[in-house]
From TrEMBL:
It comes from Aestuariibaculum suncheonense. SUPFAM superfamilies: L,D-transpeptidase catalytic domain-like. It comes from the Bacteria. Pathway: Cell wall biogenesis; peptidoglycan biosynthesis. The active site is at H239, C255. This is L,D-transpeptidase. CDD domains: YkuD_like (cd16913).
Length: 301
């Protein structure tokens, strides 16, 4: 009997020690997993605009499974603001102001060799995600303004162009369309990172564009942003124009046109599911706090 008791005591102690050791080993594995993603990476070669999204997507794919949060390109770029600055500076007109003519924006270096891309820690990633969740894109058509808010705090503002006040047959849709930009509340529902440039009137693709300075360049690679309003996808995009002289005017076929540099900001400030409100308010408050009545460009009132 004493032998049996000693055996039973030894067995229980062995099971307990083994269990504790196993638990500690599992804890170490968890710690190792959290520590296994890098705090930063150093670029060992130049990344051009044409390969930018492929590179960023590859980083997200490689490290998302080992970061303690859901890694996205938006988190990565917002944590590395120099990337957004560099993307903005591929704008043709910004380069022109520096006495540099850019024929093919896709061949510009956007992530230079030797630069560092840092990964956010869990606390920073959570904070950035909360910012995204509280972000709203607001567009007032007769004011020709797009604003980005975090709650009630304005983060960004830019000039836009909107749809013309006319109806026209568009080969792209195969019917006559009201070209006025539609109003409504909804969200960002998609992106086209390598968009097709086409004339909606005849549905013909074009590879080159004539700039405001009358010079011809290849079309740039900048994301087009797809919207949904009142539960309907009208095909009404937010996208860059290569002719910023048209901003502040009713000029487009219904889409919202913006500067090339501004397009990058909107893209990285407004991930998919970001709320958007497109309105038609003629009464606004100007910078001096005074009421201003805007021109009724669509004749609604």
């Amino acid at each position: 009997m004493n032998f049996f008791k000693r055996w039973l005591r030894f067995t229980l102690i062995f099971i307990l020690v083994t269990s504790v050791f196993s638990q500690k080993k599992d804890d170490l594995n968890v710690v190792d997993k959290v520590k296994s993603y890098p705090k930063e990476i150093i670029l060992n070669h130049n990344i051009l605009v044409e390969g930018y999204f492929q590179f960023i997507d590859s980083l997200v794919l490689k490290y998302d499974s080992i970061t303690p949060y859901i890694l996205t390109e938006h988190l990565l770029v917002r944590h590395n603001p120099w990337i957004l600055d560099t993307l903005q500076n591929t704008d043709y007109y910004r380069m022109k102001a520096r006495d540099s003519f850019v024929y093919n924006q896709k061949k510009m270096i956007v992530l230079p060799q030797g630069n560092t891309i840092k990964f956010p820690d869990s606390k920073t990633a959570e904070s950035l995600q909360k910012v995204f969740n509280k972000t709203t894109v607001d567009i007032n058509i007769p004011e020709f303004k797009l604003r980005i808010y975090q709650d009630s705090v304005k983060l960004f503002e830019c000039l836009v162009r909107v749809g013309r006040n006319e109806k026209k047959y568009l080969e792209m849709s195969g019917r006559e369309e009201d070209l006025r930009t539609r109003t409504g509340a909804g969200m960002i529902v998609g992106y086209n990172k390598n968009p097709r440039y086409a004339n909606p009137a005849n549905n013909h693709n074009y590879k080159v564009t004539r700039r405001d300075d009358d010079k011809v360049t290849l079309v740039p690679q900048i994301p087009f942003i797809e919207t949904e309003l009142n539960g309907i996808r009208y095909g009404q995009l937010i996208h860059p124009t290569t002719n910023p002289e048209t901003l502040g005017k009713a000029y487009s076929n219904g889409c919202i046109g913006i500067k090339e540099a501004d397009a990058w900001v909107i893209y990285y400030y407004a991930p998919i599911k970001t709320k958007i409100n497109i309105r038609y308010d003629l009464k606004v408050i100007d910078a001096n706090g005074e009421v201003k009545i805007l021109k009724d460009i669509y004749g609604y009132q």
